[in-house]
Amino acid sequence: MRAKALPLLAAILAFAGAGTVRGDDPLDGELEIRSAYAVPSHGVIMLSASVVYPSSELLTESLKDGVTLSFDLECIITRHRRLWFDAQTVDLVRHRELSYHVVTDRYLLRDVDTGAQDSFPTLDAALASLGAVEEWPIAVDSQLHGDGPWQIALRAGVRRGHMPDALRALMFWSDAWHRTSEWYTWTLVR
Questions:
Q1: Which region holds residue 43: left if phi is over 0, alpha if psi is between -120 and 50, else beta?
Q2: Domain ranges of the chain
């Protein structure tokens, strides 16, 4: 009886060892906002930023297996008040999704809010386009009434979106599919 238990124990240990090798963080790597600024233009505050998103072989494999990634860029504008809590006037989130299309062998980047879509030959090209935020309208002058100073805070996040049923059954316990950057803050000069 004891001799039969040894192969079973070896199989369990081998499976557990394979799970730790395969259980690496798919979002491992750099996730940060390198630079950001906002300028008023014809009554609208336009934000531009450079964001670096993580890229790994495991992430590429996951996308090719059917996982969709959701990328959120959150922007908050607050006004400092001396004798009360800061006033939060703007809270925006830009939602985008990245997936892999098997037939065309391209990465598809879709803006969830507008429905606009673009395709890229490599994951690095898609992530570079995703990280280059140019002239995103975040507020109008009428929203920023009162005296300043106005603080802008920007944070990037990436999480797992849709996935095939077979992968969902295997990865229901995993929390390695969500990361956010540190807040990047600066004072708006008007």
A1: left
A2: 25-188
